[in-house]
Amino acid sequence: xxxxxxxxxxxxxxxxxxxxxxxxxxxxxxxxxxxxxxxxxxxxxxxxxxxxxxxxxxxxxxxxxxxxxxxxxxxxxxxxxxxxxxxxxxxxxxxxxxxxxxxxxxxxxxxxxxxxxxxxxxxxxxxxxxxxxxxxxxxxxxxxxxxxxxxxxxxxxxxxxxxxxxxxxxxxxxxxxxxxxxxxxxxxxxxxxxxxxxxxxxxxxxxxxxxxxxxxxxxxxxxxxxxxxxxxxxxxxxxxxxxxxxxxxxxxxxxxxxxxxxxxxxxxxxxxxxxxxxxxxxxxxxxxxxxxxxxxxxxxxxxxxxxxxxxxxxxxxxxxxxxxxxxxxxxxxxxxxxx
Length: 339
Prior knowledge:
The chain has helices spanning 4-16, 20-23, 37-42, 169-188, 196-199, 210-219, 222-234, 280-292, 309-317, 325-335; strands at 74-80, 85-87, 90-92, 102-107, 110-115, 122-127, 131-137, 147-153, 158-163, 239-242, 253-257, 263-270, 298-303, 320-323. By secondary structure, it is an alpha+beta fold. It has 2 domains: 4-187, PH-domain like (Roll), CATH 2.30.29.30; 193-335, Trna Endonuclease, Chain: A, domain 1 (3-Layer(aba) Sandwich), CATH 3.40.1350. The strands form 3 sheets. The protein has a 5-stranded antiparallel β-sheet with strand order 3-2-9-8-7, with helices on one face. Helix 8 links the parallel strand 12 and strand 13 (298-303). Helix 6 (210-219) packs across helix 10 (325-335) and helix 8 runs parallel beside helix 9. The longest helix has 20 residues, at 169-188. The termini are far apart.
């Protein structure tokens, strides 16, 4: 039985969604009761119904609401039957004998691909700020090819998701395109907003406060920020390599150390604005690097911003080390590194 708090949260998500698929409760009503999207979001079991839309329990491991950060608002739900999602030509789709277990949830923070499978659900979160572009192909109303979302990420991934007819696909596309524009605009001009002479001062110089220094870090070029983080590790006795993301699964920095024993760390450097906190979905994603790579001793996420409460909880549970902007400034101060 879901708690009253969870029910209230689910009802709030439904009430504040943009798309008609999320607002139209009748579209998700089961044959045996008056369940709506609230039940889809918070439950994991279902009885078969004649609806072509996803029903309660399209995920087997955990409800979709568990993948949303506190405060994250879903706006559009897109789904398909038997197609799934293609990530660099690798297909992930449901093997459950119910229709439309392949879903794409568009929130105000990014896109969740969630697919129910008997051998363990598939989930991938793609934040808007990691997307370089979005395109569309096909139109189920005018051609045999379904309307397909095509995403291009900064890491070089190509993600495709086809939409069944009758969905808010065009509205969702426009919303995603707008959010990508908002996310990319600050990154495009960060180098023009701070002069070289201002950014080359040392934190130890005493010019300004820690808040001012953190602001400077938030405005440096992303590649330059990775090198600053790399220098922090080098000052602690690590040998570092700033990687080519396209060839290293999105890893920003590899750090190795032999004293007092052989160690390897993967470091993710997130140069975010103060208002853009690192969410739990990103921590979950990076935790997977640790799980897949036996030689990796630790995964570290460093940001110029902060971590959400959920992100901190996931980091603790998944053994991911996290360093926020204030802690990073202290480390730069300690080692007298120029920015």
